[in-house]
Amino acid sequence: MDLRDLQYFEVIAELEHLGRAAERLHRTQPALTSCVRRLEEACGAALFEKTGRGITLTTAGHALLKWAQRTRFDVESARREIGDIGRGLKGTISVGIVPTAAQFLLPPAARELMVEAPGITLRTTVGLGDILTPLLRAGDIDLMVGTEGIKEPGFTSQFLAEDLIVVAANSTHEIFGKRKPTLKDLRGYRWVLQPPGAPTRDWLDQTFDRHHQPRPIVQVESTMLLMLPSLINETGLLSFISRLHLQEGRSGAALREVQIKNTTMRRRMVVTYRESGYVSPAAQRLIGLLAKHATTTLR
Q: What is the per-residue DSSP string for 162-181?
């Protein structure tokens, strides 16, 4: 099989339309039709079937797509590894990272990395796992720093540290006037939380369910985790955030933990990468620095 045919095949599979694929690839539609025909002859099976005005992958097509992507990753890894021979800590590292790690782990790790290797270029994408995981699968990022690895073959995760998620409020909140607040005491207050489906939100909701208490009354929902401390501080709402935000000077807001039994969520912070992919010396060094700062920050 020709590598270029496999590259074209990936685009056709993504767009599910020969005409749109031809536009993106700056090739004629007959040229892409010939590409598909060559691959089908090599595989001995049909790769696409017509559906309305487009096309979709057959079972054989899905199998080839998996191997086409793996071949592309291997070729890119080989190119990068050969290019890195003798270069040392140089090159570009593409990192996908969740907001908490981006705020508290990446800056000190990046600072040290830039001192050791001024020629490094660092490209970051900040987002939640549902955004970052497809990017890692597609090879658009080299590393994913998050709270969950990818639990499927072909990926490996390295544990960094444990992050604690706690109930938090403005330091002047009336809840702190209660001698020993309980889960039941939280019923009368409103919250700012992530939408349902976010791991921390689901964990908190299920905690209330297990203790036969009504779920939190959510007045503000936000996917912008970096703005939660400010929202808590300004609105007086309760929230459920990393304990890191409560450390003095960390978030710029005067927040305190509402210490209530059974409301501390423990989550693992990990860095994930493709098992068979090439991890450059610079990326390996960044992983080491992230682990170093995770052990001192997330404690």
A: EEEEEEEEETT-GGGGSSS-
* Element at 186 (helix H, strand E): none
Q: Report pTM.
A: 0.69
Contact (Cβ atoms closer than 8 angstroms) between residue 43 and residue 67? no
Name, in order, each residue with C-beta under 8 angstroms of 185's C-beta and a sequence gap of 6 or more.
175, 178, 260
In b/e form, how buried is each residue of 88-122, taking b as 16+ CB within 10 angstroms? ebbbebbbbbbbbbbbbbbeebbeebeeebeebee
DSSP 232-268: HHHH--BEEEEGGGGSTTTSSS-EEE---TT--EEEE
Tens digit of pLDDT for each residue in 145-169? 998 778 878 888 999 988 999 999 9
The pair of three-digit structure tokens given for residue 158, joined into one six-digit string: 């390295």
